[in-house]
Amino acid sequence: VLVTEVTRSFSHFITNVCAIIGGVFTV
Question: Which Pfam families match (predicted)?
Fold first, then answer.
């Protein structure tokens, strides 16, 4: 269960980072 929580949190973090990077490159 703990591994699943960490993986989900990490994937969510990566998604946010990609969104931020994408926004920067878009601007």
Answer: COPIIcoated_ERV (PF07970)
Cα 3 to Cα 9: distance, rounded to the nearest angstrom: 10
pTM above 0.85, yes or no: no
Q: What is the pLDDT of residues 1-27, one digit of tens each?
A: 788 898 999 999 999 999 999 999 887
Question: Whats the size of the chain, residue-wise?
Answer: 27
Q: Which residue has the tokens 């998604």?
A: 15
Integer-rounded Cα Rg, in Å, for the chain is 12
